[in-house]
Amino acid sequence: MALARNRRRNERVDYWPGFVDALSTLLLAIMFLLSVFVLAQFILSQEISGKDTALERLNNQINELTSLLALEQTTKQDLEDQLSNLTSNLSTSEQERSRLQQLLDEGAGAAGDAEQRAGALSQTLDEERKLSQRALSQVQLLNQQISALRKQIAALEDALDASEEKERESTAKISELGNRLNVALARRVQELNRFRSDFFGRLREILGNREDIRIVGDRFVFQSEVLFPSGSATLNQAGLGEMTKLARALIELGAEIPDEIDWVLRVDGHTDNIPLSGSGRIRDNWELSAARALSVVKYLIDQGVPANRLVAAGFGEFQPLETENTQEARDRNRRIELKLTEK
């Protein structure tokens, strides 16, 4: 039967090399996209930061120009009021001059007085005309200044609109790159999940359908009694055999996973809630769980598994699978969990 099984295995077509090449090409493309995204995000963040500073400076200039425009408009209104008063006075003076000239023509006796009054009024009229001319010049100057201010405000508004448009375009580009990155990451997670499924399937085939070794979610769970004596962190003979099988499966799987997937096997140690008795080297459940996880990791390294692909963690009694205070629950909580994940 063993010969027939080997013959069937040899007759299988090996699709893995082509698949690994395709996957390597895909992951290289993903890394390129990630690099482009990071570079684009950095450049866009610098550009947006500079635009924010420019926008703030433009807004401050607009506020200052608006204040100046309001002040100039107030001054213009005052001058226009003065010009109106001067114009009214000029009209009154001209009427008075006409009346005096009429009186001068009507009586020779009152001619001297009329001429004096007419001369005084003429002098006043000339002064008011000069004041009116100065007021008109000031109004024209203010109109020119207001026109220039309006042009500056229009230019600033155009620059502000252009900056806002560029910012919207930058935001759209960032959103597009983010969507591409999410798609690439989702594909990468799917690839790792596929390798995790293959790994669990191989472990199930190697270790057999044992009740004390089972799959819980995305973890492969060994009951502590399979690997260690009670209260000890030293692998027993049965545990050494199981870990040898595990190391062989990890080495085979590691050769198939592309280097671009930065995977690790996390080894988690768990205990029950019964305190340790005695005064040995291991003082409590924290140290026991960590020491057991570390024993598994060190043995796998001795069997050829790369050290950078292994992580050891101890959780003591504080991550139980069962919360009931029964012997069966405590038996299930004493365990070593294996989880294939990314760094």
Structural features, described:
With 343 residues, the protein is of the alpha+beta class. It folds into two domains: 172 residues, Helix Hairpins; 135 residues, 60s Ribosomal Protein L30, Chain: A, CATH 3.30.1330.60. The protein contains seven helices and five strands, in the order H-H-H-E-E-H-H-E-H-E-H-E. Helix 2 runs antiparallel to helix 3, helix 3 crosses helix 5 and helix 5 crosses helix 6. It is rod-shaped and about 150 Å long. Keywords: Coiled coil, Membrane, Transmembrane, Transmembrane helix.
Low-pLDDT residue spans: none
Q: What is the CATH architecture term of the largest domain? A: Orthogonal Bundle
Sketch the major β-sheet. 5 strands, mixed
Distance between the first and last residues' Cα: 42 Å
Instruction: State the secondary-structure class.
Output: alpha+beta
Spatial strand sequence of the major β-sheet: 1-2-5-3-4
Number of domains: 2
Mean pLDDT: 80
CATH class descriptor name of the largest domain: Mainly Alpha
Q: What is the CATH T-level topology of the largest domain?
A: Helix Hairpins
Gyration radius (Cα, Å) is: 47 Å
**What's the helix-strand series?**
HHHEEHHEHEHE
| Percentage of residues in DSSP E strands | 5-15%
Domain OmpA-like: 216-343
Organism: Pseudahrensia aquimaris
Protein name: Peptidoglycan -binding protein
Coiled coil: 55-173
Question: How would you summarize this macromolecular structure in one to three sentences?
Answer:
This protein has 343 residues and is of the alpha+beta class. 72% of the residues lie in helices and 9% in strands.
